[in-house]
């Protein structure tokens, strides 16, 4: 009997609950620096996104990450997220 609890998180763009491993975390540090957290362990305010292209583009269009992290999000962050989504599909 090995019934381990799977941690669930909500995608900020689609509002879907998914297992934490299926999502990627975007973090704003105390210094205000925004980065993509692949490990899910960086300290700071975080927001989770599904790793699919449509979800990332929707978040960029609606400025969801800016709202959740209370800061400006550079276009390079979205490019990095899209690159990660492309790697996952291959």
TrEMBL record:
Signal peptide: none annotated. Residues 9-81 form the YlxR domain. Gene3D superfamilies: YlxR-like. Pfam families: YlxR. NCBIfam families: RNA_bind_RnpM. This is YlxR family protein. The lineage of its organism: Bacteria, Bacillati, Bacillota, Bacilli, Bacillales.
